[in-house]
């Protein structure tokens, strides 16, 4: 009953590449995609990624700002038309794969629809993980890699 997330090699490469551009401070952005349903089970097809700009970050935190979401909204309209934001990404350089209290605040505040997910990348360790809503909790989940 996990949310099925389908992510292409191209989009994954873009996100991992962006994640590696700063190994000292957290980075982030959002995923744009399409929500589908098969036999009553939702699944996501990721269409692209938008890097956050004008955000607040430190070595151990990443926060979207009003300016971040304004810039994301403009870029989304130009590149992806009416497709929705379906999830978000941020890095934990050297800290591992988990959602901190600040991350959970962001997820609950801005990515709180049942089909929205979070992706965390540790660019130092070369690891990543996905998290989804499940029974009002945020839990780890997998994804499908599409070539």
Describe this protein's structure:
With 147 residues, the protein is α/β, with parallel strands linked by helices. Helices cover 24% and strands 41% of the residues. The protein has three helices and ten strands; from the N terminus they run E-H-E-E-E-E-H-E-H-E-E-E-E. The protein has helices at residues 9-19, 66-80, 101-110, and strands spanning 4-8, 28-38, 41-51, 56-57, 62-63, 85-91, 117-122, 127-134, 137-141, 144-146. The strands form two sheets. The protein has an eight-stranded mixed beta sheet. The protein has a two-stranded antiparallel ribbon with strand order 4-5. Helix 3 links the parallel strand 6 and strand 7. The chain is globular and about 45 Å long.
**Radius of gyration, rounded?**
14 Å
Low-confidence stretches: none
Shape: globular
Average pLDDT number: 95
| Helical content class | 10-25%
Report strand %.
35-45%
How many DSSP H or I helices?
3
**Can you list the strand order of the major beta sheet?**
9-8-7-6-2-3-1-10
Q: Structural class, please? A: alpha/beta
Please trace the helix and strand order, writing H or E for each element.
EHEEEEHEHEEEE
Tell me how many strands there are: 10
In short:
The protein is an alpha/beta fold. It contains 3 helices and 10 strands; from the N terminus they run E-H-E-E-E-E-H-E-H-E-E-E-E. A hairpin with a 2-residue loop joins strand 2 and strand 3 (41-51).
Any key phrases for this structure?
alpha/beta, two-stranded antiparallel ribbon, 10 strands, 41% strand
């Amino acid at each position: 009953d996990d949310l099925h997330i389908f992510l292409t090699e191209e989009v994954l490469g873009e996100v991992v590449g962006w994640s590696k551009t700063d190994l000292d401070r957290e980075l982030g952005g959002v995923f744009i995609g399409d929500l589908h349903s098969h036999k009553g089970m939702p699944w996501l097809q990721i269409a692209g990624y938008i890097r956050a700009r004008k955000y607040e970050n430190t070595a151990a935190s990443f926060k979207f700002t009003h300016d971040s979401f304004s810039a994301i909204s403009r870029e989304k309209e130009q590149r992806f038309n009416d497709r929705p934001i379906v999830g978000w990404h941020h890095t934990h350089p050297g800290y591992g794969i988990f959602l901190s209290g600040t991350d959970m605040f962001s997820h609950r505040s801005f990515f709180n629809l049942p089909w929205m997910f979070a992706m965390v990348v540790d660019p130092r360790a070369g690891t990543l993980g996905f998290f989804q809503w499940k029974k009002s909790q945020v839990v780890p989940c997998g994804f499908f890699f599409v070539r």
